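Same chain as my last thread, 114 residues:
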Amino acid sequence: LSSGINAEYGGPRKKQKTSDELSDVEEREGETFEDFDNRRWNKRTHSILNLLKKDLDGSAQVQFFLFAEGNNRKQAASKFYSLLLLKKSETISVSQPEPFSDITIKPGAKYTAS
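reply #2:
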């Protein structure tokens, strides 16, 4: 359609983004989930890990509610997702006694290797 309108839905067509325009939260064409996961790990997660290291150096554990204090919902969700990536790689250990309670963050098996 040359008019720029999507005939199936009647709304405007979305412009395809080039790989340079893609953010860290979008998969690139032909990229596997693991490549995408590792690319995300390289930026935001390293930043979160550095913040955690500062907090964990002074104590044996960090509480997520305190770690995310003062953040808006998007920032807190981003930190939570980074915790999941760090947990998956065994860099940190997390525990939560019951749903919706605070999450305790401790160094994991591969913590010193990071």
